Amino acid sequence: MPTDSKGKFHPNHQLAHAADRMPMPDRPKPPAIGKAVGDASVSHTTLHDHGDGTFHLEHEDGSSTESPHIGHALMSMASKHSDGMHMHVHQHPTEGLKTHHVGDDGQVQGPHDHANIEALKDHLGKFFNEEEHEGGGYGGGEGYGSSAEDDGMGI
């Protein structure tokens, strides 16, 4: 296989020769951590695994969070770094479908167990208030996720 002057392989001699004549465009470098990107500030969170299924988060602002599950940790990070509502779905090999979510209030809910995919879809619809906002954006799901709304499937 032919190579260009830099040693990169090409499918034929014409492409190898053309590669030597064509300048490579400079790729933009990703922003450094803590530097501004557009109108948003980039920050970071460090996740520490305790090895027993629990996690510790250290946020750039100095706050920290203990999380009993990875899903809880992910939702804690999501609420810290982005506005809006977030949901994490996980299929555990022996325990089935689980969700964790965080609403606009920043409070992480879960884990919620789901007997099947239909129960999970119902949970998603309730959390994002799908019926009220048919097809357009999230709905808010105000107050959803408390144990008082448990429908017997662990949601």
What features would you highlight for this structure?
alpha+beta, 3-stranded antiparallel beta sheet
Could you walk me through the main structural features you see in this protein, from its secondary elements to its overall organization?
With 155 residues, the chain is an alpha+beta fold. The chain has three helices and eight strands. The protein has helices at 13-21, 70-81, 117-127, and strands at residues 36-37, 40-41, 45-49, 55-59, 64-67, 86-92, 96-102, 108-114. A three-stranded antiparallel beta sheet has the order 3-4-5, with helices on one face. A three-stranded antiparallel beta sheet has the order 6-7-8. The protein has a two-stranded antiparallel ribbon with strand order 1-2. The longest helix has 12 residues, at 70-81. The radius of gyration is 23 Å and the shape is elongated. The model is unreliable at 135-155 (pLDDT under 50).
